[in-house]
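Render this sequence as a predicted structure.
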Amino acid sequence: MKGPLPGKNEVRVLIVEDDENNRIVISRLLRLSCVDTSRIVESAGDPSALLAEGGSAVDVVFLDLQMPKKDGFRVLQELRANPATAGLTVIALTANVMRQDVERCRAAGFDGFIGKPIDGKRFGEMFGRILAGEAVWTVV
């Protein structure tokens, strides 16, 4: 895992999730974790162009693995290949929570894994660990 990130009031988060309800849930959990709402950006699809232009404007990416046009593994591969976004902390989000799914995410180069449905009671603790530079590999 990478080193510590900015504090909760300063961290910039990108949520890449094609399901609007999931984006709303994650955004609300981030707000409950004291993330400034002006620092949360949401995307319903491929964030590559957005990040390529301003990759340094984001600290953490929550990336859904199952999106219709380009899956999260492909998006991660593109982010890691671009020098402007290669160092971002990218956390996989998925309902696929079998052991082999977690291991596939580790092998692909994700910095963490949070299974869906997201445990709202534990999200703040998990997010705090991510900000501290710890690896979070939680299925449910």
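Summary. The chain is about 35% helix and 20% strand. Strands lie at 13-16, 40-43, 60-64, 89-94, 112-115, 136-138.
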